[in-house]
Design a protein that fits this description.
Elements (H helix, E strand, L loop, with lengths): L1 E8 L5 H19 L3 E6 L2 E12 L2 H14 L13 E6 L1
Antiparallel strand pairs: 1-3, 1-4, 2-3
Helix pairs in contact: 1-2
């Protein structure tokens, strides 16, 4: 199984809309892939966020759903200048 860790910085003043978008994103992923996500913020750096998706079995399907949903929600519009979503995958 694979776990996904996605981190990025949210633009100043966009915290609430970004939380709403993450909630939408995670609800859609749960509906399409049965994978429930979590959201965390870094202690001392509240603009640095981390999405966690664990125990993904259908990696290709999950990645397609993730990419499509992020594009559809225009999530990049809420990121800090010069920031992007960084994706790390771990197996185990």
């Amino acid at each position: 199984m694979t776990s996904y860790f996605i981190y990025y910085r949210v633009a100043a003043g966009c915290e609430q809309p970004a939380r709403e978008q993450v909630h939408r994103l995670q609800e859609r992923l749960a509906a399409t892939s049965s994978v429930r996500g979590r959201l965390m913020t870094k202690r001392g750096e509240p603009d640095l966020w981390l999405e966690i998706y664990e125990e993904v079995v259908d990696v290709a399907g999950f990645e397609r759903a993730l990419d499509a949903t992020v594009r559809e929600l225009r999530f990049s519009d809420l990121l800090a200048p010069e920031s992007r979503r960084h994706l790390e995958c771990f197996e185990g």
